[in-house]
Amino acid sequence: MNKAGNRKGKRNWEPYVWLLPSILLISIFVIFPILIVFRLSFSEISKAGVVGGFVGWKNYSDAVHLPAFKTVLINTFWWVLSVVGLSTLLGFIIALVLNQEFRGRKIARSILIFPWATSLVIQASVWNYIIKYEYGSLNSVLLNLGIIKEAINWRSSYQIEFVWECAVGIFVTIPFVAFCVLSGLQSIDDSLYESAIVDGAGFWDKLFHITLPLVRPALSVSTVLNIIYVFNSFPIVYTMTKGAPANKTDTMITYLYMLNFYDRKKGPANALSVIGFIILCICAGIYMLTVMRKEENL
Asked: Choosing a second label site near 42 at 20 to 30 A (CA), which of 104, 126, 153, 237?
């Protein structure tokens, strides 16, 4: 009995020993920095970065009452919604195409990975060159094809520039969604589709009753990760516009960076980072709860 009890006790704590390195790494590089940011958001911080005493909610009040706060919050909402939403839709469609048998499918899959594998700074710089008014390649191609008679200013307003930022974000995010969905599609047994065809099911019937339910776990993972990645995305916005003019094209991440390192308002910047963290947790939590409830109802 003693030996059996010792073995049972060993089995109880053994998994925690194997998990200990991961727990330590997460604590040091994730949890500990988050706690530091939370503490700094309630502290007085000088322009030189010297941390002072406790100031309560002052940093949060200052951050919320900044002139550009409302604009940046709205921009961040549209940035995440458009990039995550459209990249998920387009990525799903592309995954359906790449899951079919056709000549050159391997080449098509290889080409699709390029936008995702390339540095975001390089991608944004290339697109900056493409839409240049004076010597951009987009105007050059359209002029040579005779589609337009004179060069178009593709960056004539900050609204259009923000649309271009979103477009680049969608372009570089599509491959990630497509490959996540493609992995889910390849795990579906072909016999399910064959049975559905025998029962007279059409394309839309198979899509909504077989494909979507079985691909939902892969879509859930890609969507949650996309929300996190896109919300925290810095290189595209900073490389293309740096938030100009007057923070009109900034998102939360680029704005708090400019606030911290250019304006030297370190207290409000830390408060903004905490606000962004909470918003992100709420959005991801709501989405996961919604998906889990739908799966339970199936």
From this structure: 237
* Spatial distance between the Cα atoms of 26 and 260, rounded to a whole number of angstroms: 26
Both tokens of 78, joined, read: 């549209």
Please state, in angstroms and rounded to a whole number, the distance separating the CA atoms of residues 237 and 120: 10
Q: Which residue has 């911290």 as its token pair?
A: 260
DSSP 262: T
Domains and CATH numbers, the chain: 69-249 (1.10.3720.10)
Residue with tokens 């704590």: 13
Residue 166 to residues 75, 83, 144, 171, Cα–Cα distance (Å): 10, 6, 27, 9
Contact 239, 119 (CB under 8 A): no
For 119-170, what is each residue's pLDDT tens digit?
A: 899 999 999 999 988 888 999 999 999 998 888 999 889 999 999 999 999 9
- Residue predicted with more confidence, 292 or 107: 107
Buried b (16+ CB within 10 A) or exposed e, 189-209: eeeeeeeeeeeebeeeeeeee
Determine the distance from the C-alpha atom of residue 255 to the mean position of all C-alpha atoms in its chain, rounded to a whole number. 17
Q: What is the reported pTM?
A: 0.88
How far is it, in rounded angstroms, from Cα 173 to Cα 30? 24
pLDDT at residue 297, rounded to an integer? 63
